[in-house]
Design brief:
With 412 residues, the chain is of the alpha+beta class. The protein folds into 2 domains: 2-52 and 268-409, no CATH class; 64-73 and 87-256, no CATH class. 55% of the residues lie in helices and 17% in strands. The chain has helices at residues 2-14, 16-54, 71-75, 96-104, 137-143, 169-175, 206-211, 217-224, 243-254, 261-264, 266-304, 306-314, 319-352, 374-400, 404-409; strands at residues 58-61, 109-123, 126-135, 150-153, 164-168, 182-187, 192-201, 212-216, 232-237, 258-260. Strands 2-3-8-5-7-6 form a 6-stranded mixed beta barrel, surrounded by 4 helices. α1 (2-14) packs across α13, α11 crosses α13 and α11 (266-304) runs parallel beside α14. 37% of the residues are buried. One of its GO terms (biological process) is lipoprotein localization to outer membrane.
Length: 412
């Protein structure tokens, strides 16, 4: 085996210029493949992290997956029912204290109960539709990153503030209101109260910053005229990946609709899966193109060394040995290119991570999001080696099949 490797090295060194070009092609292919994978994976991770931080890992509402049985269906053997007027159930989640106690006994995370109410916020002559969320501030701070998104005031100022509200900075801008101003919030029930703005937040999610209003749970219950009602339970887990299992168990126990963050963003995650398939297909294509350089040089060496191959076979070398020699040449160039490409990929990834951006609007992302993942290096280098070995095998197979007598005599 050592002799075969020495022969392969001699062949590769004999065409140094072409070898350098082939290795450079593999190096660039591996390096840019790793950098592209790091950038695309980084952007995906950044987006998913934003999703996870901006919403609860599991959300339980007072809805059910299937429509409730209508009273008429119990009384009549009807196939279809039309024209029924739905009856509002102001109770929300039944027995919320018992439900919360049951969840806290096994859920590995923090839980916050609240009341969602639709309403209108008015300041001066401007009205804006808003989504009012009544919560207990202490519990909400355990399940939400809202404290980190505060731009003015403190979220904890809701405690002891009477009718106090924390609103998005975009909503405040559209209303023309600011910190410590008083806005009038009315619910669909017709109940209206004046709320003092004690804090402004910016999450970067437009729908949230323009419509969300946080108030105390009791204040929301007053607006909705629903005493002690709760229609929303939010859960934040230590392990976000466990959200699907927790949501399924909660739905089974409470018979209420429980949605994990994965289910709520299913279409986005599917799009990411398709994008990853496209990314790795492009990476493979880049490395296959780089492998053609190796194929060309090994083919040239095979043609030039035809008489040497015949002599080696005539003194006892087997067809298998010839194949190993030329496959080793391809693997040597692929391995060297893969190693150099891994270094280039790491350098490109590090450089891209330092690129800064300036935006007019405030945002937390100031650098290109990149991810360091050894799997990217393993895939890129592995594909480079596989492509190089295949590029060396095809000419090697042809060389091994030659008849040494015909070659030495000059036959074609």
């Amino acid at each position: 085996m050592r002799l075969l490797l020495e022969i392969a090295l001699t062949h590769v060194r004999g065409r140094a210029r072409q070898t350098i070009v082939s290795v450079a092609g593999v190096t660039l292919g591996v390096g840019f493949a790793i950098a592209m994978a790091a950038l695309m994976q980084g952007s995906q991770d950044e987006f998913v992290t934003t999703l996870i931080d901006a919403m609860p890992h599991v959300q339980i509402t007072d809805e059910t997956r299937t429509p409730r049985t209508q009273p008429a269906e119990r009384a009549y053997a009807a196939v279809e029912i039309h024209g029924l007027r739905p009856r509002d159930d102001p109770r929300g989640i039944l027995n919320p204290v018992e439900a919360l106690a049951g969840l806290r006994s096994w859920v590995p995370g923090a839980i916050s109960a609240g009341l969602n109410v639709s309403g209108v916020a008015r300041y001066g002559g401007t009205d804006r539709g808003v989504s009012i969320l009544g919560i207990e501030p202490e519990d909400e701070l355990r399940v939400s990153k809202i404290a980190q998104d505060m731009t003015s005031g403190k979220f904890s100022d809701l405690v002891g503030g009477g009718f106090a509200a924390v609103i998005g900075d975009s909503l405040a801008e559209r209303l023309g209101a600011g910190l410590n101003d008083s806005i009038r919030i009315s619910a669909s029930t017709g109940v209206a109260r004046n709320f003092k703005i004690v804090g402004l937040f910016h999450t970067g999610v437009v729908a949230t910053d323009e419509t969300m209003v946080y108030v105390r749970l009791k204040s929301a219950q007053v607006l909705a005229a629903r005493q002690n009602a709760v229609n929303d339970i939010r859960i934040r887990l230590g392990d976000p990946d466990a959200a699907s299992a927790v949501a399924a168990r909660a739905e089974e126990l409470l018979a209420l609709k429980s949605v994990s963050w994965q289910e709520a963003n299913e279409s986005i995650l599917e799009a990411f899966a398709v994008r990853n398939i496209i990314m790795y297909t492009v990476v493979a294509a880049i490395l296959v193109v780089a492998g053609f350089g190796i194929f060309n040089i090994v083919s040239i060496i095979t043609h030039e060394k035809a008489r040497d191959i015949a002599i080696l076979k005539s003194i006892g070398f087997r067809d298998r040995d010839m194949r190993l020699v030329f496959m080793a040449e391809g693997a040597l160039m692929g391995g060297l290119g893969g190693a150099l490409g891994a270094g280039l990929g790491a350098a490109l990834t590090a450089y891209m991570g330092t690129i800064e951006f300036e935006f007019r609007e405030a945002t937390e992302v100031t650098h290109l999001p990149v991810t360091w993942n050894w799997i990217h290096y393993a895939i890129a280098v592995g594909l480079a080696l596989a492509t190089a070995a295949l590029a060396g095998y095809l000419p090697a197979r042809r060389a091994a099949q030659g008849n040494p007598v015909d070659i030495i005599r000059g036959a074609t």
